[in-house]
Amino acid sequence: MIHEVTSSLPKFKGLRFTSGLNIVLADRTDKSEETDTRNGSGKSSLVEILHYLLGGKADPKSVFRMPPLDEHWFEMTFDLAGRRVRVRRDGATPGKVTIATPTDDGEGEDEETISNEQWKRRLAAGVFGLSQEGDWAPSFRSCISYFLRRQSAGGFQTPTKHFSQQMTWDVQVNLSFLLGLDVELPRAWQRLRERERQMDTLRKASQDGALGEIVGNSGELASELAGAEDELNTLARSVADFTVIPAYTTAEVEVTRLGQQIRALNNQMISDREYLAQLDNSFDEVQGARSTGLAELYAAAEVQLPEVALAAYDEVQAFHDSVIANRRQYLAAEIRRITNDLATNTAERDRLAERRSDGLRLLASGGAAETLFELQRDVARRQVRVEQLRQRYENAVALESQQGELRLERQKLAAALTRDLAERQQMLGPAFVTFERLSQRLYADQQHGRLIINATDNGPEITATIPRGRSKGITNMQVYCFDVDLVTLWSRRGRGPGFLVHDSHLFDGVDERQRATALQLGAELADAEGFQYIVTLNSDETPAELPNGREVEDYVLPQRLTDHGDDGGLFGLRF
Amino acid sequence: MITPTKGVRPERSLLYIGGQVLSDLDGPTTVSGAWEALARRRRLHGQEATVTFDWFVLALDLLRALGTIRLQDGLIVKVGKS
């Protein structure tokens, strides 16, 4: 239980608590409703101070680290694991807490300053007997928040969440711990969710890949991959066998030029052969020229040209022979020349043809460097594609097998949880009964509320519901019943914080009758089960007496708060 | 054979052929040159009557016998009127 809360603030309203029900009453004036400030009377601030002293975060924006509070310390005396402990924290050194514990002889105090982290570990062990650490383990801070709900964090919205953004695993792990279920099961679920999340990332990675294609199934991809690999190998082999011809273009031009020369030579040779045939004919003609014709010419001349003096026959005969000889020489020379030409051209053509076929062989065996680079680029492109396909294929295989595994894992976990819950049925009984009794006392005219723990394929699903009837504020009373149930459960175990703090906001919108009953129930159970129930209330919302006739005033702390005046609130100053 | 007769067509007569040779003989010409010039000329005029090489030589012989041409260093040249 909490004994005392004080501060170095000069006008702080130091609060002394007793066992059982403690009501911190704030007087609300009419004036205040218009100018209601955050720290009007300091009811909600009390919860903040308790969190602050119980290892709560104090980030730079925390009120405890800003003026005017940052120069002051806050202190609380409470029972931790059966020993009275005084804890002090100040805004100047928010990472440290000072702990004072009674010496073993009970005469003095041991004071030490430890880090807030160490303090949280000590609280975890002392309050809840928590020693587990590591991922997804139950934590002191999360567990204690069910006993110190904050309106500002949305702590009154649903019984199972102490802040509105609380993650499923956080709820499952910590409530499993608080209710006495197997904590390892919700932790296993969270590990499973982490794997599923990774798998989602994997799936997204496959989808958002460079190809932007939807990941196919592994069968299709295996086939596509094999095809792409084969094409790549074929291409890679031809690149390996490729001979680079340094002056490929020059060689190509040369071969073309040689081809033209060879054609020109062939044409020349054809006409030469025709000419040679003509020459041969003419030569034969000359050989066969008759020499007898001259005598006939002279004979005819005497008849036909009697009056002409002809040159001497012998002279003309010599002329005749010379002409024929000339012609013969000429033809023979021509024949020799053409024959020579033909021989030369044939040799030249053969030589050119040889060179040309060398060039062709060269060109056939390889290609230009650019061609090789082009091939290499193609190979590189294909390699990238093959790599992408392989990646996608592996992803697809991983996805397909993991999807199955994870489905199986969820089913296994659900089965294990069902078994676990069945085995713990007897142990859970009191928690169920307490919740039902509380709801029954609050709403006698309605169906009873139920605390239900279901084994779902998403882990334990804990619900604390009271069927919605005519009454207002049912949700708040679900929270009330759940919290009282939890603190009762832990008091019976002889552990836990030993206190439950309810801010006045929990009773907002709750029928007055239920509000009075809730206070009475809290007082009864606190006495019967041995825990401390601290409630902050506004005076105008507080019933004068409880259903059993007890005066509410009996439970109200002597130190009253008010939103009237600058020093009426808990802090004794406005800021 | 020199002049056209009953059996010799005018364009085959040696005198006619000799005239044709002379017409082409602008400068010293080889025997083959004169022969080819004659063949060209006759083809040009569409004269189909075949002139064999020995007939051509006889035409040259006639021109030589008449003193119109002579051989000079193996080339046929016209003999000047003087």
Automatic annotation (TrEMBL), chain A:
Domain of life: Bacteria
Segments forming domain DUF2326: 438-575
Entry-linked InterPro entries: DUF2326, P-loop_NTPase
Name of the protein described by the UniProt record: Uncharacterized protein YydD (DUF2326 family)
The species this protein was found in: Saccharothrix ecbatanensis
Lineage of origin: Bacteria, Bacillati, Actinomycetota, Actinomycetes, Pseudonocardiales
UniProtKB/TrEMBL annotation, chain B:
Classification via InterPro entries: ABC-3C_MC6
A Pfam family the protein falls into: MC6
Name this protein carries in UniProt: Uncharacterized protein
Superkingdom of the source species: Bacteria
